[in-house]
Structures are given as C-alpha cells and as structure tokens.
Amino acid sequence: MRNYIFFSLFLISFGLVGCGNKTKGGAADSADSSAVVGMSAVVDDERHTEAYIKERIESIYRHFGYSETSRGPEAEGMPAVNYDSLYCSSRYLALLAEAEAISQREGTVCIDADHWIVGQDVDKKWSYELKDIRNITDSTAQVELLVNNFGPQKVVLDLLFEHGEWYVDNFRQTYDASSLEGEEGEVFLSSEVLKEISEVDELREYINMSKEDREESKQLAGEWGWVGDDCPELLLTLVTNDGYLAVKECLIYRLASFNDATASYHYKTLEVHGFVDYVTDINLSVSLDENGDLTGTCKLNLDEYNIFYEGPITLRKNYFRYK
User: Residue 27: its pLDDT value, please?
Assistant: First the structure.
C-alpha cells in the first residue's frame, strides 16, 4: 500500500513538473526544437559545399578500378555489388527498373555499358580524376570527371540531394565523335566533333520506343501466308499477349511445325524465330511495305525434306495458296 501511495505521489509531482515546464518552458521546448532544426540546417549547409560533394564522389568512385570492375569477388562465388541501388537517386532507379523490365521481356538491351567505369571492359590502368563541381543548389549539383578507361572520357554527373545525401541522378558522357571509326576505318559522325549522351534521355527514348513498337505491332495480329508459286506454304498466326506480339502458330504446311516460335517487333521490323532442332529451323526478318504486306528475308532449314532456303520473302494477311 505504501509503495502504491509513493508511486502515486511520484506521478503527481512528475506531472506538476511537466506542467510547469509547459507553462514556463514553452519557450524551452521551442528552443529545443529550434536547436534540432538549426543543427539539421547546419548539416545540410555543410553537405552543400564543394568539399563535402568532393568527398561524397570520391567515396563512391574509390570502389572502382581493375580488381573491382573485373568482378574478382564474383570469381570466388561472392555476389557483385549493385552500386546503382547504393548511389543513384530514387527517380533514376525507377526509370532504370522500367527499362530493365522491358529489356527482359523483349530480349533487347537498354544499357550496353557500365556507366561507372565507362565501358564494357576495364583497363588495368583504369583511373578517374575529379575536374569540377558546379551549379550547386538546394537540391541539385553537377560534377565533372575525367575517366580513363582505354583512353580519357569526360563524364558529367547530375546529382540530386534527397534523404539527406547526394545521389547520382544522371550520367552524361561526351564522346569525341571524330575518333569513332567504322569496321573499314571510315570515320562516322565526322560533322560533329563532340557528342553528349544523356543516359536518362536514352532510357526514356528506349521506353517510349517500346511503347510505340507495341502499339504498331497490334496491326500485325492475324494470319499470314507466304506469297509465291515455288515456295513452301508457310502459315504464320500472330496474336497480342499483354500488349506484346506472340506467335500462335508457325508451320510449313504438312511438313513441320514450330510450336515454340517467338516473335518480336522493334524499330518497325518483325523478327520470328522457330526452332525444332539444329537441322529444322526458321528465321524471318520482315517489315510492312506500302501494300500492307510483310516483306524481308527468310532463312528456312528443313533437312528431313531437303529444303533449304535463304532469300527474300513476302507474307500477306489471309493468304493461303492451298486453301
């Protein structure tokens, strides 16, 4: 009972002290809150200095180099580190995730090089140099690097300040177009000495192109037949599945059926691949012409029937020679 009374008095006295603080010390509470806000502002101010941004970038790029980017840890069975998830902004990651989902579904490539090392392979002498920090605002900044990977490469990082830290929001690479040569040594893009490529713009273009392709491919749904008097009777039925083009039927009349044939439509070109075994397969690459036919090339291999064809093809909707 005494313990109960003592505890009750303690609670009452504690409540009075608390009330007293609220009466007199509303200012004290306000001061404490202001102090926290002030400390936060100081931290943010410090993080918006060139010195802090330099340290942040160096803390990121020290991960890269020949041993890391050559995937040494993977050779020992260790998983590779996803540096994008650690150091890229949330909106960049959302855009990248959308592009990668399309890439996996369509079997196309959205990014063909590592933007951290600037390339697909890494030079044993890989290095970087921080050249400039500029355009610092409350939420954005830019950093210019010179990355040496089989040659110098200018890289500009667009930074975004979120969650109390700086993250990479875009990778901009500037190429000396005059140094890019074709297979036979000819220089292309020679009229443009420098060409900047924004990775965010490239990803958006990739996503938009995929949407346009899916919309255009809807007109290809239906039954198509090989036009000609001396060609095998190809029957091709295309359907749309979740917005993507798919093969419902692909067969050479009375000779072979390609049950697992696949279709893809990119940049106004339809690709169809059918495979039974290494001596029975078909590959089509066709586009819609002004007459509404699909014209292009075909490679057909039916070893069992001694049929081998590689050359032009015309497919017409609802055309079947033997029906």
Answer: 45
